[in-house]
Design a protein that fits this description.
Helix 5 links the parallel strand 6 (about 130-135) and strand 7 (about 160-165). This protein has helices at about 1-15, 35-55, 65-75, 85-95, 140-150, 165-175, 185-195, 225-245, 270-275, and strands at about 25-30, 55-60, 80-85, 100-105, 110-115, 130-135, 160-165, 180-185, 200-205, 215, 255-260. Helix 2 (about 35-55) crosses helix 8 and helix 3 runs parallel beside helix 4 (about 85-95). The chain contains 9 helices and 11 strands. The N and C termini lie far apart (about 45 Å). It has about 290 residues and is α/β, with parallel strands linked by helices.
Amino acid sequence: MKHLLASGLVVLGLATATPLAAQDTIRFAVTDIDGMEALQREMGPFKEAFEAASGLKVEFFPVSGRTVAVEAMAADQIDFVLTGPAEYVVFNARLDAQPVVTWVRPDYYSTVVVLDGSAVKAPADLKGQKISFGEIGSTSQHLGPVDLLAKAGLTYAVDYEPVFLNRNVAVEALIKGEIAGIGLNRTHIDSITEKFPDQKFRVLVKGEQLPDDILLASSKVAPEVVETVRKAFADHGTEILAALTSTEENAKYIGGKFNPTVTNSDYDVVREMFKNIGITEFTEFVGE
């Protein structure tokens, strides 16, 4: 029993120690990959390439979403998180998490789509209608499309009724005339076109390139470790990207790159998008 107790204390000590004391291990999470098995499958090749490029060991920390990830960082259980633009704004506001490098996605922009034969010819024609958006709080499927409509003079939840439907359900509702438009990103247009080959869709309004997914660091990570991570992407981006995109789930990054010169102010455009839906404090995830 004494031996077991001593072993337990040793394990506990290792678990609570800061891995970065030796500056050789980073604890890494991805907000939209659920579970260790999926994390290893989708990010395993990236892990190997990054470790070779940086000299650091990557320890995966699985999370079941953005809320769990921010709580884990607050508890000093993770050091680096890969997440989306809107999520970064919350991490930064709550924990002073800092940007390290963006993972650039080609053709990453928002749209509002209608049926090709729709009587809706301009954003103003959506006034008084129902519009479906993707995941609530998503940069490209919610905040981005709302921003496009705001710039066209339509006030969120006043000039139209926002609803949140599964993408395929939303298309079926569009076909039935139950909604007038759908907020999507570029990749999703390809998806619905393939899923509904007998339908033709028209992009009513298209946005500019959105701020990219971002690797952020906890404020507790030593600056020299952050710099080591940033330098690995700067110096070995081609090799790391090739490994990353070798798994099907990361195809969205094919043709992209890593931007290690990102700054916090690059995400001010996302903060403005939050304001369109009435949010002026950024400490909570939308819809949670």
